[in-house]
Amino acid sequence: MLNEGFLKSFGNTSSWHIGFLLVKTFLVLKLLIDLGCCHMDRPHFNYMFNPALENPIFVQGFPGFGNVGKIAAHLLIKFTGAKPFAELYSPTFPDYVSVNSDGICRLPKYEFFAASMKENDFIIMTGDTQPSFDDVLAHYEVCSEILDFLVKQGCRFLVTIGGVPISEEKTQVYVAATSPRLALEFMEKGAVIYSKGRIVGATGLLLGLAKERNLEGICLLGATAGFKADRGAGFSVFKFLMKALGNEVKEGL
Question: Which of 221, 218, 207, 219 is nearest to 173 (CA)?
Fold first, then answer.
């Protein structure tokens, strides 16, 4: 293992930089070995258990505008009591590790949670980050792997969640869908059609690729006034989705 003497052997700033890179490389390699994927050259799933789900609805929420997607996903995890059952790692994720309060590091990842409720079963995905926006092929590769995984889990309906920046403060949920029927259905439930815009990253690409596979889905976008975490917008989207699926939510969640 690395010790203090090893680190002190790097006397100047340049040597310290080299030492830092060596330590970082060592830690990343150790993580890869622990995952059983030291030669990871493509997206890799790590399973904790295989959940017994019936026609699960997939819900995705990532960091983004106002962190709306990630906030809504975590509210859904809490509401349903969902349990983590799989993780996705990819060499196209950024080159850093996250370190927890105990000093333990891990690679960036996507997490998948499973939940069974009276009305619906769910697979909920959230994560730390996404591939670089400049790496278009990586986005397609990772999203395709996710869809392959979801099809194996019996999922036929997707919900992606994000935020949309607006100049004024107001509570509003926008919807885009894979078909006119779905767009109309969720508009009648209170959403506003999101038109003539773009939905970037996995939040949009998952829907586009799902449509090519004859899967159905919607994207729900919560109106947010800025880039800082907007729990109100995240809660509004979460509450809208639950009500649309037949579940009532109390404000105190």
Answer: 221
Q: What angle do CA 15, 16, 17 make, to 5 degrees?
A: 90
Strand order in the sheet with 121-127: 44-47, 83-89, 110-116, 121-127, 57-61, 157-165, 216-224, 173-177, 192-193
Integer Cα distance of 149 and 160 in angstroms? 16
Q: What are phi and psi of 8, to 5 degrees?
A: -70, -15
Token match 């830092």: residue?
A: 20
Q: How far apart are CA 226 and CA 166, in angstroms?
A: 8
Cα separation, 63 vs 69, in Å, equals 6
Write the single-letter amino acid at 102: D
Q: What is the pLDDT of residues 61-117, one digit of tens each?
A: 998 888 999 999 999 999 999 999 999 999 999 889 999 999 999 999 999 999 999
Dihedral in degrees, nearest 10, Cα atoms 99, 100, 105, 111: -100
